[in-house]
Design brief:
This protein has 6 helices and 19 strands.
């Protein structure tokens, strides 16, 4: 094992959080802002990149490269490590940023590499490399709901990703094809072939309400599908929000907005 071995436990149903148990000197790496709580004896530190051996071995340039990769996936320059500096087992807890599920992935059982959508990563054992995966096909890059760049998790330790709604794990046989709404694809193993296809038929594309493109996944391999992408949830909430004549949602800005009106900021 090149990665730290960590134990974990999931809590909750639709608003999950994960408890990670750390032995002395064990470390877990997480996205900035993912922390829910931690016990005494755990020390947190902000780092460039992902803290894996590949980024550390390159010195300053390696760390800058790791941080630069995270910027390309739309994430922060920094990640946070949580290390147990106590004498016994300690626990740290991470929460999902929106309703859905946390998916534990043992990379040693998944071929050492998983490709996921760029905002899915939550936390991982120290040593797991969090990089970028360029789509080899331009169609998948320009028209895929996940964009040209996806996240790549490599190593032999535990990693945790989150997704919206209910999660379905599906194994694909060699040559088996699955067509998925681009926003519903959460993750896939490295052996899955990923491409983008246009929805056939101009009427279906324009009036079907499912978008112009869908992802085509070809086996062998394993894929994880989410029932409620955050973008779909956000668009429904925004569409249902009452609008004022000025185009603002009612209640927007609350107290600050009312004070602004009182001082003559709005006619």
């Amino acid at each position: 094992m090149n990665n730290h071995e960590i134990d974990y436990k999931l809590f909750g149903d639709d608003m999950q959080f994960v408890e990670v148990e750390l032995d002395p000197q064990e470390t877990v790496v997480a996205e900035a802002g993912a922390l829910m709580m931690m016990e005494d004896g755990i020390r947190m530190e902000t780092i460039f990149g992902d803290g894996s051996a590949s980024s550390a071995s390159g010195g300053l340039m390696g760390k800058l490269m790791g941080a630069g990769k995270r910027v390309l996936t739309g994430e922060s320059l920094f990640m946070t490590t949580f290390t147990n500096h106590g004498v016994g087992k300690q626990h740290v807890y991470f929460a999902s940023p929106y309703p859905g599920k946390i998916i534990p992935m043992d990379l040693s059982r998944l071929g050492g590499k998983v490709i996921c959508q760029k905002d899915a990563f939550l936390a991982a054992a120290k040593g797991v490399s969090v990089g970028i995966e360029f789509q080899r096909r331009l169609g998948a890059g320009f028209f895929g709901g996940e964009g040209f760049i996806m996240q790549k998790l490599e190593g032999d330790g535990m990693a945790f990703v989150h997704a919206g709604g209910t999660i379905h794990r599906k194994g694909l046989q060699k040559g088996e094809v699955l067509r998925v709404d681009t926003g519903c694809l959460v993750a896939m193993t490295a052996d899955v072939t990923y491409n983008i296809e246009a929805v056939p038929g101009i009427k279906t594309a324009l009036f079907g309400g499912e978008g112009l493109f869908f992802a085509t996944l070809t086996g062998p391999g394993t894929v994880w599908i989410q029932s409620l992408p955050f973008s779909r949830l956000a668009s429904r909430v925004f569409a249902a929000a009452p609008q004022t004549p000025g185009g603002r949602s009612q209640g927007e800005g609350s107290a600050a907005s009312g004070l602004f009106d009182l001082l003559g900021g709005r006619n």
